[in-house]
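W.,

You were right to be curious about this one. When I first looked at the sequence I had no strong expectations either way, so I just let the prediction run and decided to look at it fresh. Below is the sequence, 250 residues in total, followed by the output.
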Amino acid sequence: MGIAFDYAPERPEHIDAILNGLDRYNPETTSVFQDYVAQQCEDRTYDCYANLALLKLYQFNPHLTRDETTTNILVKALTVFPSPDFSLCLHLLPPHILNPASSSTSLPAAGDAPLSEAVQKLNVLNNLLSEANYKAFWSTLDSDDLYADLVADVSGFEELMRIRIAVTIGQSCREVERGVLEGWLQLRGQEFERFITDICGWGIDDTTGVKGTVIIPVNKENEAKGTVVRENVQFDQFAKIIHRAYEQPA
């Protein structure tokens, strides 16, 4: 049985009480949720259900919206890709944020509001992750100082992203050229080897290729399995079909 969508093992009791009561829609709880988002950023925990509840409060009470908290929620949602959390958060934002002056292009325009520009920037990163274009993700992240400002509050952001990228790769690959994987993880040398062996538990075969090949152990996701489909059709069912083929049209 899968884990419930609203489950978060590190959720404090007072947050759980708010989420399961009428205070969930009380504007006075906005500051409590905002502090909880800041706590998630500091201690590397994540609670999508509580974050969505805060964005819903922002919908009902726009005057209480804090841009920094909103962007922190989106950045935290990036750290759990390929889950749909980022899209869920995005759809709770107001239309003027999602349809800014630069809506006809893929990049923010000079006339966009700060929050709108930040959301568009983060959406670019999300799209690159969705496309599994990990090398472009890292180069885009390093291309603008605004990205550094957006992820600054989230402790260990780059490490969390590398882990999620590695998890996704481990579910789809058995072997990857070292040079390719270095670009996907933006790691080189001993740092790369330490991450691959100590954190991922993978191996490196230096006898193949120019730089070697990273060997990923077999798991239930990346194991190739043949599928045999068997049809259970009785003979009398064929008899009915043949009989109807010889029936005279009315």
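Here's what jumped out at me. The CA atoms of residues 71 and 118 lie 7 Å apart. And, maybe more interesting for your project: The first strand starts at residue 175 and ends at 177.

Coffee later to discuss?

I.
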